[in-house]
Amino acid sequence: MQALGPIQNHLQVYNFRKKVEVAPCPELSVWAVLPGQKPQDPPGERPPIPVVVCSPDPRVPVMGWRIVAGTKGNITDLLPKAQPGSYEEYCKHRYEHGVPEGVKDLPPGVALPLESNLVYMNGISFSKGCYLGQELTARTHHTGVIRKRLVPVSLSSPLPAECEESEIVTVSGKAAGKYRAGIGDLGLALLRLEHLGVELQIKLGGREPVNVNASTPDWWPKPGNTP
């Protein structure tokens, strides 16, 4: 929600002489249906709740389905076999699989689209033109040199809240990257790819360092199949 106002203002800047209204829709809600439960075809002609969108998550298959529906009614009427979960459980699922979302994972003005794996998540088109950052993004993509990427990490113990955005180092003290955000012992870190598979730590100054285990998501393209 903290990005709602800035996004609305940003879209309004590029609304030239068009009768288009950009406004929040509090009467709608967004639901994630994680793997293991697929939205069923609603019985009859009318679904039990008003559904605007029901489709596979366009980012990666591991994120399941997305539903945009009216706030009136109960989502379990549409998915009677589904087990309702919390937003925290949804975020843990994302972090476990290395899927960033929102301003904590992708800070505006800081996160770069290629380092954030947006190409892998159908977030960038190289056949379309005239979008902000197009030239730099396309040039970097076609040179094929991306030294850092956002990767899922597991921690030996949760970080204190004030230690988010902490530096990640090798056991010898060499800079390897930076912790971005997470919940509990799961999170995302922007790491130099050369340090994947290496023992990593976050030093807490006077306390026992937190060990960091970085991994490569299964949904990343295999070598030779990179978009």
UniProtKB/TrEMBL annotation:
Localization per record: Mitochondrion
Annotated TM spans: none
InterPro entries, alphabetized: CAF17_C (IPR057460), TrmE/GcvT-like (IPR027266), YgfZ/GCV_T_CS (IPR017703), YgfZ/GcvT (IPR045179)
Residues of the signal peptide: none
GO cellular component, one term: mitochondrial matrix
Domain of life where this protein originates: Eukaryota
Keywords: Mitochondrion, Transit peptide
Domain CAF17 C-terminal per the UniProt entry, residue ranges: 147-222
Keyword flag Protein biosynthesis: no
NCBIfam families tied to this protein: ygfZ_signature
Record's protein name: CAF17 C-terminal domain-containing protein
Organism: Aquarana catesbeiana
